[in-house]
């Protein structure tokens, strides 16, 4: 039985900073950010968008296309959690009016959270082929104003529907996983911004990629040339480019050109949204599916990495007619309709977002009609409303 990704929905908030403006404000050469880091724009979440509201908005992108009565599992992967106890899944389940029988919980392992959820969902659907699973990754990447990591911030969510007989991607059984207890990136409970050893995290990411990619190929008897494309976790697009260069070392010219072209197709959305932590690999996958000219049966490799650190390489095959399940125009419109912030405006919003709203103060949102937002805290309970 085939199990895989049947629907993909993404959401990013309605404001952004242009990397050229940010470079000028930080006295940097714009080409460092555009080429050296590989980012063009970054989405900015104001205090009314959080991991939960973005996760609801991402899932709303496809909810009307699916049979909601079949959803048996709802997993929320995040490292921007809104509560130490209650999972983000329950807020999402309530907003989407899903059945109380749905099993709902949250998972965490840095940017690996959505992949962890996807692997659990895949096993669940193999055991319960009549049911489906929603898996959400939703995050706001915050390093801080005027830090080295500032250029690698962003905000957004990706929601996947996992089912039997999927309409977009069939997941192949098996994977190569690798983990080590290290400190490359982390966010203590007392901090709203991440702690990071950026150069070290890049090195570990590349080491884990080399290890899992070669181990996966060995396990499956595959060669690099068998992949039509490889999608990477992209905290910033230069990171994936470095991994892709490792992947294509020593391959024939045709494979080299194909994997470079598919990498270019896979980074377009990420270069304009920024880092969305758990959702980054799947935003890149969406970008690849929309821009990569893939055909039915093509083999795609997927590399997931979460700091701390945990990595996994796995693969999937493209399903005939996958393009009919995507909405490239609407996905691009989400980016094009964002409002450009000046750097001082972004700094003000960023600082405001570091402070929790006071109890019983209602927040208003300038998001579009039909979108969910965080409306503040009432008697210590988070309130989510739709415009
Ligand atoms: N034109 C073109 N390129 C230029 C340039 C110019 N004018 N000036 C500099 N560059 C290039 C540099 O040569 C360098 O390229 P290489 O990486 O190929 O050597 C690149 O721009 C960056 O320059 P620096 O290394 O000098 O940049 P920096 O010291 O400011 O830091 C960074 C860059 C380490 C990526 C920093 O932004 C950072 O720490 N980011 C956050 C770390 C991160 O995202 N890590 C990812 C793994 S963690 C993760 O994914 C999160 C998770 O699990 C939760």
Describe this entry's structure for a reader.
This protein has one domain (3-386): Thiolase/Chalcone synthase (Peroxisomal Thiolase, Chain A, domain 1, 3-Layer(aba) Sandwich). 35% of the residues lie in helices and 25% in strands. The protein has helices at 19-25, 30-37, 51-60, 88-95, 113-127, 198-220, 237-247, 253-266, 268-273, 280-291, 328-336, 343-353; strands spanning 3-11, 15-18, 41-43, 71-77, 103-107, 132-141, 154-164, 169-171, 176-179, 185-186, 195-196, 229-232, 299-306, 310-318, 339-340, 372-378, 381-386. Bound molecules: acetoacetyl-coenzyme A. The site of acetoacetyl-coenzyme A has 28 residues, from helix 2, helix 6, helix 7 and strand 13.
Q: Class, according to the CATH hierarchy? A: Alpha Beta
Q: How much helix, percentage-wise, in residues?
A: 25-40%
The H/E string reads EEHHEHEHEHEEEEEEHEHHHHEEHEHEE
- CATH-derived topology: Peroxisomal Thiolase, Chain A, domain 1
Query: So what's the overall shape?
Result: globular
The stretches of 5 or more residues where confidence is low (pLDDT under 50) are none
Secondary-structure content class: alpha+beta
Radius of gyration, whole Å: 20 Å
> Could you name the CATH homologous superfamily?
Thiolase/Chalcone synthase
Total domain units: 1
Give the beta-strand count.
17
Give the rounded overall mean pLDDT.
Answer: 97
Report the biggest beta sheet as strand number plus sense, adding barrel if it closes: 10 strands, mixed
Associated small molecules: acetoacetyl-coenzyme A
> What is the CATH architecture annotation?
3-Layer(aba) Sandwich
Q: Which strand-content bin applies to the residues?
A: 15-25%
Termini separation: 41 Å
